[in-house]
Amino acid sequence: MSQRDTVVTFVSDADIEAHVTLNDIVPAIEQAFIDLDAGNSEVFDVVRGRGGGDDHFFAIKSGRAGSIPAIGLKAGSYAPGNHKLGLQAHTSTTMLIDDITGRPFAVVEANYLNGIRTAATNALATRCLAKADAKTLGVFGIGAQAIFETCAVASVRPIQRVIACARSTAQQGAFADAIRKQLNLDVEFADARTTCENADVLVTVTPSRAPLFSREWVRPGTHISAMGADNVGKQELEVELVAQSKLWVDLPSQAVAIGETQHAFRAGRITLAQLEQQTLGRLLSRPELQGHHPDAITVFDSSGIAIQDIAAAYAALQVVTKRKR
Amino acid sequence: MSQRDTVVTFVSDADIEAHVTLNDIVPAIEQAFIDLDAGNSEVFDVVRGRGGGDDHFFAIKSGRAGSIPAIGLKAGSYAPGNHKLGLQAHTSTTMLIDDITGRPFAVVEANYLNGIRTAATNALATRCLAKADAKTLGVFGIGAQAIFETCAVASVRPIQRVIACARSTAQQGAFADAIRKQLNLDVEFADARTTCENADVLVTVTPSRAPLFSREWVRPGTHISAMGADNVGKQELEVELVAQSKLWVDLPSQAVAIGETQHAFRAGRITLAQLEQQTLGRLLSRPELQGHHPDAITVFDSSGIAIQDIAAAYAALQVVTKRKR
Question: With contacts defined as CB-CB under 8 Å, which chain B residues touch A99?
Fold first, then answer.
């Protein structure tokens, strides 16, 4: 009745923060999306539940990521009461399970990693779609994730100017300090219109439930990575901006349910069949689909899927194991 | 961007086998079912997927178990190719997550534990429903789980005779040895009819997809714990036996989908509304519902739910932590 001794490696946030960079994760995420397009990755149904505390939301995202020999699941909680305890509201943990035997081999804290994996996906979309010499990045939102996203865009385009727009000034100092430290750039803080009108690339990374700016302010040729919407009711862009853009999504079924695309979909402006041809996996698999459109606005709608978590956790496990030796 | 240091305790199969007994788990399972009846426990949707190997099935069961301060999830795989590698086909791992903060605090191997938690649930049903002086247990199936189930029934009734019926003779020796060692009883092997006609309590614990015996052979007053059916198409009892019995189930929605009850439900002989009044949680919560029916056959349909896994993992964590000190 006994199994062979199991070795389950635990990788902490601190391990990942010390040893893992964006560039360690990007190729793994890229391969996972290519595998998804080729039918070699699978995303299982998302579980949604509630924790015991007020407003404690819980979810499990799971699946298989093609070339990676693992089934993975990410358990994620959002418990806003944590702030009172000096803890972050979000907690994510990824378990990796051997694809063949079904035996778990790693438990990876995915709090810091979640930031990198989301930004890595933005880097991939921006690399495919933004103007080659994009110099000005406009960022909506200046929280912790906005720092990851700014660095991600700067890793694939020669960004020289960062303009940030945020409702509150509270985090301006922390955001500016981080960007100065990481990119050696001074952040300019501006209103929504100024941010849009000057940007070659726009990134929205907020918990907004209404459009952040008028689509009239966005110049043709702008690429927008819409990173914020990941639940019903969340929205950062105007419906017509999404509907008239050259749109790409991570997972069509999820984009229309909880992504930025949900609003244009519900308005009947976008069909699921159409989106099946507009996935990031397809874009990454077919170089002929990539490239900047000077007369159009491109949008990447990121809602966040399990294969990103699996690919990121597996890559982080390899890197940490190697570099900690 | 860092979290406080996390402590995730790992509890291995070997820890549990060395330190945890059926009686450590029974009260936890009982409380979890009582909480479920009181509306204090929740079972989230089950995830089903496939692994990479042939016939590798994967599932995640998750939920919250009332009095226990945890959200829990059990990732389970069935990979029959494992036998070639000298590994068990089933692998289960439970993660426990703080109910308030959402932070994981334990990863518990649930292979040996799964056997105990299922048997503990059988013990609870049998304690409520079987004849007080039940002396003869009939067991269909003689695999590893049958050993747990036999011990569970013997823990709540004065069993003096164990009759076992199995299609193959291959495991007879191992089963008989285990029962002799654990209960000091000599197992009699018999055909299905003899097993039924002599039993005060019957336990079915097989992967069968068709009835194991004729309902005509079962004496009035017999209690049956049907432990095997946990997927579409599995079946151990005749439809009319289930339909005419005093039936109890762990979770109505799951019983009609994948439990023994699925067949009587599909035949229109049992309704979901009716089953809502016939749960193990209700039975355990209301002593007036408990007791032996000399003229009737009682059936407990166990399909296996997340709150059992959470309660068992949490209890095992407490016991192992205490006894290993």
Answer: 51-53, 56
